[in-house]
Amino acid sequence: MHIDGKVKPVNKGDHKKKREQGDKILYWALGVIILLIIIAGIFASNGSNENPVATSSSPISIVETPAAAIIPVYKLGQDAKAGTFTYKVSGVTVTDVLKSGYDETKTEDQFVVVKIRITNGDVNPRDISANSFELRDQSGNSYKAFDRNSNVGKDEPLYYETLNPGLSRTRVVIFETPAGISGLTLRADSGVALAGGEFIDIDLGQ
Fold first, then answer.
1. Contact of 112 with 91, CB cutoff 8 Å
2. Could you state, in order of their start, the residue ranges of all structural domains in the chain?
3. Which of 2, 61, 194, 200 is deepest in the core (most CB within 10 A)?
4. What's the pLDDT at 61?
5. Least confident of 65-79, 124-138, 189-203
6. Under CATH, what is the fold of the domain 73-203?
């Protein structure tokens, strides 16, 4: 038996082709894995959107507020009823100084002094204060009662007091305002704190 001692040479071209085929298979496999990861991520995000978590800007519920209450308007000299109180404005004075004896309180603008009779129509004592009243002008500005201890002649200012059932008090409520305002309306509350909340307007004719 004849044995050829010559070694058959390796074909380098065949080795290169096999290596290129292996690289292609590896790249294809990596591409498939990456595609599967992307698809899994899409499904996971869609599932989480089914029950989104409310953020701080997301309302938990929406409450429908009722329409604004209609506030009745009375004229100067009329009996104006707010809750169990009845108010009657008998006069309005505009001045730049409040005088009582030797005491004077001046302003660079003006004081609007509203004289009002207050009657308690309840069966129980009721509290009333100057903060139960607010002055408004035609521009929509509102003014709180003047909070300094100032009398106006013989008229006693309203601060805070309790009226027994059936009693009346005549007081003045003082407001410091800019000079020259017009279209004045007195807004009156039905009482103090929890007893309040029912409003009326009294046209002061100025």
1. no
2. 16-46, 73-203
3. 200
4. 45
5. 65-79
6. Immunoglobulin-like (2.60.40)
